Amino acid sequence: MSTEFVMKNTRYIIRLIVLIMIAFFSFSLGLKVNVSANSTIPSDVRVEEHIFKNDTLELAYLLYLPKDYNKGDNYRLVLFMHGAGDRGFDFNVLHNIDYGFVSTYLDDPIYYENTILLVPQCPTPYLWVEDSWASGEYTMTKDPSPASSAVKELLDYVIYEYPIDISKMYAVGVSMGGMAVWDMIGRYPNLFAAAAPICGSLDVSK
What is the Cα–Cα distance from 190 to 168, expressed in whole angstroms? Predict the structure, then answer.
């Protein structure tokens, strides 16, 4: 692994941490900035609506792609997992999922250039993790929840279909989504280069 690769990856992780800190304070203060597909999307970013189906469920998801996306290039991937209040199957809701993260992510090319942002929506009545987050911790089950399993399948699909640099994949989640990120890094410890679960319960034994 070259020094240049390590430095570039480290710089992006530091930038992502700063972005996550901004999102955390916005969420803590109750500031929720709506992101509309027709208003605050930068001109050099395009948003695609997709549906993923497996044998158990189907979920809606958005892909934020650089406008000059080229299959010949390599891209970072950022997965964002939302909280319980945004469950459903509604692209209008998906376009407005934010928690201070998406709007800040889209505010500066430092974050979104050469990067694909994946935002799946947990379908009702499922949960990303089928357990209560009230106590702050839980015991990880042998198998992931149907919704979390679908997200892992979706990740595998996106990695296959898009030129993702698998050494530069990141996960961010808030509330139920934070719990989902803890669950994913517990099950797949080598999947992400860095992860930021915010306000989410975890299995402390993992």
Answer: 11
Rg (CA), the chain: 16
HSE (CB half, 13 Å, CA atoms) of 49?
A: 9
Q: Is the peptide bond prior to 163 cis by the omega test (within 30 degrees of 0)?
A: no
pLDDT tens for residues 168-199? 999 999 999 999 999 999 999 999 999 999 88
Alpha-carbon distances of 79 from 2, 75, 194, rounded to whole Å: 26, 13, 11
pLDDT digits (tens, 9 = 90+) for 109-158: 888 889 999 999 999 999 999 887 777 788 889 999 999 999 999 999 99
> pLDDT band at 101, cuts 50/70/90?
confident
For residue 83, give both structure tokens: 């909280």
Question: Which secondary structure element, helix H or strand E, spans residue 143, and what is its range?
Answer: none
- The reported pTM is 0.83
Of the candidates 97, 92, 147, the residue with the CA atom closest to the CA atom of residue 124:
147
Beta-carbon contacts of residue 119 (< 8 Å; ≥ 6 apart): 61, 62, 63, 64, 80, 82, 94, 97, 102
Q: What span, in angstroms and rounded, lies between the C-alpha atoms of 112 and 43?
A: 12
Amino acid at 14: I
